[in-house]
TrEMBL record:
This is Vitelline membrane outer layer protein 1. It comes from Orchesella dallaii. SUPFAM superfamilies: Vitelline membrane outer protein-I (VMO-I). Keywords: Signal. InterPro entries: VOMI, VOMI_sf.
Length: 193
């Protein structure tokens, strides 16, 4: 009896999986203003940040809260480290520089005050950033204001870090209520340590 021998050849090749860059966006608690220009690190990834905030001016003042976010594309303590921003509001001053170095920013959370009706609106007041070198749910909190509540945490994928920024900014409203930053979009780029 003739036997037929069948040989199956399986070729295994290396499979490389990559994820596309994703955008993570703050939940829209407030929605005033227009989106500013998108900025992306030309080289490196975000390792630190700085906030521009208008201090509380009192009960009869038109306060704005957070007016800009600066992200450092490398070690923020090194001279000449490039940085990115989006639209910068007219009010307030730059606060402290915060660093995740040698880690990278990989998530954020905004502190946002909801619509106040006939009272003063401030919208976004502060930001927390999550870092690759901080365990669990630990974060670095900026030196913004304390109005409002912390929104939902936004995280990059586990193999990604923050590399870009865009902010929604309400500019000067004349006699109407001013708020400055309302929402934030950050781009997450692939990162392999």
């Amino acid at each position: 009896m003739n036997k037929i021998l069948c040989i199956t050849v399986i070729t295994l090749s290396s499979v490389y999986l990559t994820t596309a860059n994703i955008n993570i966006t703050s939940p829209p608690v407030t929605n005033w203003g227009v989106w500013g220009p998108f900025q992306k690190c030309g080289f490196g990834y975000v390792q630190g940040f700085q906030l521009k905030t208008e201090p509380y001016g009192g009960i009869f003042s038109d306060d704005t809260g957070l007016n800009a976010i600066k992200l450092f594309c490398g070690n923020p303590d090194s001279f000449g480290t490039p940085f990115i921003t989006s639209t910068e509001g007219d009010w307030g001053s730059w606060g402290n520089v915060y660093s995740c170095y040698p880690g990278y920013l990989n998530g954020f959370q905004l502190r946002v005050e909801e619509y106040q009706g006939s009272s003063d609106d401030t919208a976004t007041n502060n930001v927390r950033f999550f870092c690759t070198n901080l365990a669990g749910s630990n974060y670095i909190e900026g030196d913004g204001l304390g109005f409002g509540s912390w929104s939902q945490i936004q995280h990059c994928y586990s193999d990604q870090v923050i590399c870009g920024l865009q902010t929604q900014m309400e500019t000067y409203q004349g006699d109407d209520d001013d708020t400055a930053i309302n929402n934030v979009l950050m781009e997450c780029c692939d990162y392999t340590p």
